[in-house]
Amino acid sequence: MLPDLGERLGSLITALYPDERRRPGYARLARMIRETTGGTISATYLWELVTGRKRNMTLEQLAVLAEFFGIPLEYFINDDVSRRINAQLALAVALRDTKVRSLALRAEGLSAASLDALLTIVNQARRVENLDQVGEENHDAGERPDRPEAQKS
Fold first, then answer.
1. Which of 71, 123, 139, 141 has the greatest CB tally within 10 Å of its CB?
2. CA-based nearest residue to 13, from 23, 2, 27
């Protein structure tokens, strides 16, 4: 039994097809899975998994879904792997927005102090708009986590 399977599968579908109007139905998605992987999962069963009506799958079915979505099989069974993949998916979805991408590209090369100031502004804007505080990391002021000298042992 995989208690979070429906949520995880739903997250993958949403990340792959963020626009609900263009998101394929379960029949089309099941057909795409079959055509891409050679594995079969019926549209009804897929719907039951996403909605939480079914929560148990065979390892073979999980492998088919992992192959289709291009993720490790462990995503479905390991919370740490799931969190890591979801963070990557959230980043990929955010970078689809040209304004988010433009902001990130324009920030490249700024000093650590300027980046900290921008993060403060963005975090405050998210609070004002009642949005979740995503990506807030507890870095010391001026620390650049993407640089080797900033990584702690």
1. 71
2. 23
Contact by Cβ (8 Å): 118, 109 = no
The token pair that represents 89 in the structure block:
């998916």
Angle (CA) 16 22 25, round 5°: 80
Residue 27 parent element (H or E): helix 26-37
- Nearest residue to 113 (alpha-carbon basis) of 142, 134, 150: 142
Tell me the C-alpha distance between 150 and 152, whole Å. Answer: 6
Tens digits of residue pLDDT in 37-91: 999 899 999 999 999 898 888 899 999 999 999 999 999 989 999 999 988 888 8
Give the rounded distance of the alpha carbon of 53 from its chain centre. 23
Model's pTM, two decimal places?
Answer: 0.67
Encoding tokens for residue 119? 């993060």
State the Cα–Cα distance between residues 54 and 132, nearest whole angstrom. 30
Helix (H), strand (E) at residue 74: none
First to last CA, the chain: 37
Structure-token match 């324009």, residue found = 106
Amino acid at 143: E
Radius of gyration of the chain from its Cα atoms, rounded to whole angstroms: 19
